[in-house]
Amino acid sequence: MSTTENSQQRPLEGLRVLDLTRALAGPYATLLLAGLGAEVIKLEDPVGGDLARDNSPYVGRDGVVVERRHADDISISHLTRARGKHGISLNLKHPEAKTVFADLVKGCDIVVENFTSGTADRLGVGYDAAKAANPRVIYCSLSGFGANGSEGGKAMDVIIQALSGAMYTSGAPGEPPVRMGVPMADMLAPVFAVIGILAALEQRHRTGVGQHIDVSMLGALTSFVAIENWSAMAAAGMPSRTGLTVQRLSPFGVFECADGYIALVAVHDKLAAGLFRAMGQVELLQHPQFATRDARVANATELEARINGWSRQLPVVDVVAALEAQGVPVAPVRHPEDALVDPRVMARNETMPIAHPSYSSDIDLRTAGIPILFSGARTGFDPVLPVAIGEHNSDVYARLTGYSAEQLESLKRQGVI
Amino acid sequence: MSTTENSQQRPLEGLRVLDLTRALAGPYATLLLAGLGAEVIKLEDPVGGDLARDNSPYVGRDGVVVERRHADDISISHLTRARGKHGISLNLKHPEAKTVFADLVKGCDIVVENFTSGTADRLGVGYDAAKAANPRVIYCSLSGFGANGSEGGKAMDVIIQALSGAMYTSGAPGEPPVRMGVPMADMLAPVFAVIGILAALEQRHRTGVGQHIDVSMLGALTSFVAIENWSAMAAAGMPSRTGLTVQRLSPFGVFECADGYIALVAVHDKLAAGLFRAMGQVELLQHPQFATRDARVANATELEARINGWSRQLPVVDVVAALEAQGVPVAPVRHPEDALVDPRVMARNETMPIAHPSYSSDIDLRTAGIPILFSGARTGFDPVLPVAIGEHNSDVYARLTGYSAEQLESLKRQGVI
Known about the structure:
Two copies of one chain form a homodimer. By secondary structure, chain A is α/β, with parallel strands linked by helices. Chain A has helices at 25-35, 76-81, 97-105, 119-123, 127-133, 157-164, 184-207, 217-225, 230-235, 269-278, 293-298, 300-311, 316-325, 336-339, 343-347, 393-401, 405-413, and strands at residues 16-19, 39-44, 58-60, 63-65, 74-75, 85-89, 110-113, 138-143, 212-216, 252-257, 260-265, 330-332, 351-353, 366-368, 373-374. In chain A, α1 packs across α7 (184-207) and α7 (184-207) crosses α8. The model of chain A is unreliable at 1-6 (pLDDT under 50). At the A-B interface, β4, α2, α6, α7 and β9 of A face β4, α2, α6, α7 and β9 of B. β9 (212-216) of chain A pairs antiparallel with β15 (373-374) of chain B, so a sheet runs across the interface.
């Protein structure tokens, strides 16, 4: 596990999270809390555990592999999402589990779950049960459509992307929608969940009591889509999807080079002049089709063709250099593997390496960090990982519930933990 | 302004934010704080104010228009992003501004700025100045590449999208990258900024002092991209971009209908059987190319062609109904205008209406709400908007700084406010 060198405290130190989540959305919420310094206790079913343990690819003694070969191969998903979390097991379907859950909640500030809506209550581990055990607890539910809503279909990322309108904001008119490669629905809901949890903590300082936080994947992503006023744009005759460029701001967008693509923005006269100089076509500055901002917008298709006609002849690095020399905002369109190792991003721990606890890897297993820097605190993950299900049962149960070794042994024999 | 009917307190009530931000990223951060109950004081330059005031389209006495026609037309961007905020003016370039800024900061818990990196310090309104005035203040800087980094080019959303790798996670191999229509870089950094601010508030309860929070647009979006382990996937021979479908999970992704598109997920045997029944092609269950999960993945292109061959004949509504009847996860790919009025989303205030303070509109001006529900608190925006620059100068300056009417008049004459 990587942590920063900084020896300062982390912002959420002293807070404890009981983490009932699985897959991606929930575990990412508790990952953020762990990286901010909360103690996160990941609770898994004794049989099978988190589904993400079976996500390909794996890493282990043979390096990175598509199919699990050895018992100690670990899914890279698990290695990423369970970092810095302590692992315990509890079979929530067992009749004894409710009591154990209540005993755990007494020692926790926060509970997070992302079961299908209604499941936590049915299992007896919903907010009401948690509150009865600990009125100060902040209990966060992540679901597809809201904690009290009837499920309108399975809440997988691609389903939520489709419903949210996000797929139709990308791509060109007349072209198919675009499935975003980053699982935005899965990732965005947990970020709002963390905001809800921290806001409720602030309120708890005033009131002394906790509450239930309810975040939906559909709502989180749709609220992002809604920052543009689509109905007003349609009423004003402005197209809602425009592909790689935005012609009403022309020249603006993504252009082709000999070996890749670049993004550029040259909306204003001064920037357009810089672009034309970079292109070696200063005569365009006087050209009636391109001399003014209005003219460039009116002749955007022709202008874009001329830019592409120039940039296609050159490698990305030359186009970027030529535009930078003229002060025109420009960037290469980078592949994720290149983006993740940007020195600025690595220096700030916005991406960070992970490693199998026992085996090194030739591949740079780089993943998401905490993209927030604090002047008076550090972020980062404790060097702990639930490699096996229930890895930290003895320690955690003893600390939180006071159960004796005999009691734990008995719970294990009964299949409770 | 719309608020919820709930009369409970909001989670961040009692906290005050001095908001120096402009454009989108910063104002969205303070919008979230306002919707969670903080008092937000939007500070604008007396001349011109926030750039977003000049964003087309506008709304006013003629309804929604592309170009401003009347003095009281308001940009819908401003109406959206300045909701629930009090407006004051201050010319930060005036020599007297530093004193006024310090007097304001004394009465605030939080300061947020998104100037180009280094500008706030140069103006004398950076963290050091704020801390000298109020050691408890939490000061958040939003920038393209980090508060202490040299600017690596202009940090516009499309530039950050290009650098982050996000553009290359969407689209099909061999096809161009995809510019996301939702300004993800502009929107994601402020969400992490709010997490940073709230985490620092929690720490302040322990330590009594504030700190500087530093969030970069590049880091926030790159950390999202980094949740997938791109290098490991490449090493395992798994393609990084796969277009509308994901063949290693086939059938999974977006398919074409006669009048639009749907997303479906039928990874497992049971779901695949449901799909084949919905298609009226139960014989595929026995077909050697499609009978098992491995076979379906191996023959994904052929399978996708068959699904599209069926779905293209039917309207979206029929394909969705047929798949739902078989329990197969499916959703229509909706346009943003349809997505924003989903009854579930409207009921939860995840999208909410806005209106010009004086004129009604035939167009549903629906925008982002706060996608978090609290059982013990409400969210929503106070019915306040800085229509004019410095709209709330008298009230806010009197409350926060105690300046007399004469002092304010003098500051105005000198061009300070």
